[in-house]
Amino acid sequence: MIETIVVIGIVLAAAGLLARSFYRSAAGKKTGCGCGKGACSMAGTCHGAAGKENHSSAP
Question: Which member of 13, 19, 33, 41 lies 3.0 to 4.6 Å from 46 by CB, making a disulfide possible if both were Cys?
Answer without folding.
Answer: 33
